Amino acid sequence: MATLQNIKVAVDAVVFGYKDKTLNILLIKRNIAPYKNSWALPGGLVLENESLEKAVERELKEETNVTVDYLEQLYSFGKPDRDPRNRVVSITYFALVKPEHHTIKADTDANDVAWFDINKLPELAFDHKEIINIAKKRLQGKLTYEPIGFDLLNTKFLFSDLEKLYMTILQKQIDRRNFRKKILSFNILEELDERVSEGRGRPANLFKFNKKQYFKHKKDGFLFDIK
Amino acid sequence: MATLQNIKVAVDAVVFGYKDKTLNILLIKRNIAPYKNSWALPGGLVLENESLEKAVERELKEETNVTVDYLEQLYSFGKPDRDPRNRVVSITYFALVKPEHHTIKADTDANDVAWFDINKLPELAFDHKEIINIAKKRLQGKLTYEPIGFDLLNTKFLFSDLEKLYMTILQKQIDRRNFRKKILSFNILEELDERVSEGRGRPANLFKFNKKQYFKHKKDGFLFDIK
């Protein structure tokens, strides 16, 4: 095997969180060159004997103190000049978390960590802006064929919260009547007895996602589909 | 940057071809260890200054003499022990070709090259069986939301050829009447004046895929969808 190749392998993570009714991304402020003091995706080089997923989990834990339940591989970025130091191929992952369940804290290569509204991102290091754009498209796509929206909402939510989440992430208006009819027809939500009022409206019932029911339906051939 | 990391970066290609009414994959017979004389996906290490896509194109050309029009990144495989020599992360791609348009010829690391029916694959080197399984799932998925089936058929085809292709790749029966109605409603096929008979049936008209029309529809918001 040719030993002349000197390409490094890194992982980077796009962690999405839904917060204050906006879609957010977890970023760290780099404390090493290049792009020192720039905001960037959490990530770093893969250690010799760890799997790619373990590398992402380790970097996230070290740089942001966030532990994720679920990681999905997004895409690999390998342009020869994407890192000014050395050629680095980055294998990227994305995750969905509920920001209020995590206490973020910077460490190792990061001297700060924060959630940023995806529509108000700062200047980013490397090709991280491009990576985020691809992750956003993947998230928008998945939202229409998998019930991942519930991973971003509180356990108990108003139906209007779910509508708002879809409109925010898909960046378009939805036909509320059809949306409600469709979602309820899937029979994967539990309507609770608890009621809360939002703004000046009448109190409305809270809902809960019934994941067990969803997997049961899925096994029977049901397709979640909000197009 | 840590210089201790000694992970190599390779690319591998899953090239699909539709041939004799079966879904085929292009494989090479390795002439170097490990897995010498085993069949494997075409691929190899990325050169220092070439993009990942260029690396796939070069390896395909060198090992199989096949030139592809379109490559799509599939997934990156990085288990620490997937190559017995050294840790190698493989970034995999898939492509669709019409086998009769290519004269395959082995060279460099390959001492043979051949098309294999996906249901009759030989023993494969490394984790290439797993890579093919993931590529097959991706192809099955894409077939339902993009008109990629036409990239696998002859330019002129019978409607029954298209039906057969869908049934072969999706590995299930389709409701022929609904399928025909749906596909024709998309208004992306041209029915030609040429007629041919298949088997003992009545002569039937040939069709052609109108790619220009498809892209026009797509721009207007049309979604190809065969579920």
From TrEMBL, chains A, B:
Domain Nudix hydrolase as annotated: residue spans: 6-140
Cited PROSITE patterns: NUDIX, NUDIX_BOX
One Pfam family from the record: NUDIX
The keyword Hydrolase is annotated on this UniProt entry: yes
InterPro entries documented for this protein: Nudix_hydrolase (IPR020476), NUDIX_hydrolase-like_dom_sf (IPR015797), NUDIX_hydrolase_CS (IPR020084), NUDIX_hydrolase_dom (IPR000086), WH-like_DNA-bd_sf (IPR036388), WH_DNA-bd_sf (IPR036390), WHD_NrtR (IPR054105)
One MF annotation (Gene Ontology) recorded for this entry: hydrolase activity
Keywords assigned: Hydrolase
Family classification: Belongs to the Nudix hydrolase family.
PANTHER family in alphabetical order: ADP-RIBOSE PYROPHOSPHATASE (PTHR43736), SLR1690 PROTEIN (PTHR43736:SF4)
Protein name: NUDIX domain-containing protein
Organism: Spongiivirga citrea
